[in-house]
Amino acid sequence: MGAALIAGTLAGWLALYFASLIGPRLGHRRAGQLPIGAGSEPPAVLNLIAGRADRDGLAATLIGLSGRGWFSLTPTACVLPAETPIEELNPYERRAVVHVAKRTGAHRETPPEALLDGFAGGEDEFMKAFRAEVIAESRARGLSRPTFSGARKALLCVLALIPAGATVVAAHPGGQLPSLLPLVAFYYIILCVAALTKSTERLTRAGQAVLAARESDLIRALGSFGSPGSLDTGERNAAWSGYGDSWRLVKIGSTDERMWPGISGGAFIIMVLLIIPGIPVAGIVGDVLAGGHGAELGVLAVVAGNVALTSRAIARFAHLPRFAEFDGLVIRQWQTGNEKSEEGISYFVAIDDGTSADAWAFPVTEQNYNAMPPGTLVHVRVDPRLNKLRGIEPLRQLPVAPLLDLPADPRA
What we know:
Helix content is about 45%, strand content about 15%. The chain has helices spanning about 1-20, 45-50, 55-65, 90-105, 125-140, 150-160, 160-170, 175-195, 205-225, 265-275, 280-290, 295-320, 365-370, and strands at about 70-75, 80, 110, 145, 200-205, 240, 250, 325-335, 345-350, 360-365, 375-385, 390-395. β8 (about 325-335) and β9 form a beta hairpin. The chain folds into 3 domains: about 1-240, no CATH class; about 240-260 and about 305-410, CATH 2.40.50.660; about 265-305, no CATH class. The protein is α+β, with helices and mostly antiparallel strands and about 400 residues long.
């Protein structure tokens, strides 16, 4: 009886939970009556309700701002005007313009691909804030809504007391209540977390109608640059750098430190595998195939190969100095991991020294990460042979294009 009570109340709560999920997801179009003011939706909002990637939303925003005179954007260049329009920008448009201003700096002309890189605080953080502002605009226009409103989340948490209470009722006659209370509390918390952490978006009827009527406008706007992703660099391990008199595309180097005297981790693993199980396997194979001294020849062949690989791995970096010091420009930031993992968050920066086709990439402290957004000139001390950062200090920020009066927070 107790099990049936627990299962029944839980099934009822889950039925209500999944019923709350009903509703058209982003990208689900259906013709209907257009709301008042339809046709004035910003490109980023159309991109959101179409369920496209946030990078496409930023590209669409840049194209829209270009059409309003904030800059001239063509497939080959982004050119800043002598004067900018006098108009109010919504938060995500302002964020995009501030990014363009910082990215362009003293250059009046920028490759359009460079505008989708070099985000202060890293791309993930920028896109997270950008998406939140676009969602706020979409909700204000009545085109989308949260899957679970605040009231619905509160209701689900209140109703979660019923299956949790049913567990208490079922356990009470058997005298097991004291020992089960921690489990019941955990049970209730799990149900509440399932409700409170749901952060997806659903289209309203107005949003579906607008999407059906105007999605072709969005595709046409993005298509003016060839494809929705055509503003990208084409390579995630490459970035545009404005260090110097002109822009150039540089490759982002590895962040991994090499072992002394300059052996990469991959080469070291291969060398270990050549020894174990390489040597015994080569000995057995040589003995089976050749007999006699075949085992010795197999072992010698593996040893010779290992020596050759080791020599090549060392020679590849032996010409590099053990210490170098230079000034460079931070061109990209990124993070890996999260606060909940054992390792926590790791912070990285890519630095162009202005002389090489490859940019240096190093792990840095959170303090250095926050002090060195893209566009920061830094002084670097490094062991090139081991690809190890010895020290890094910010010098100054490059000039920012005067598109807007920038906020005090460089990450805004």
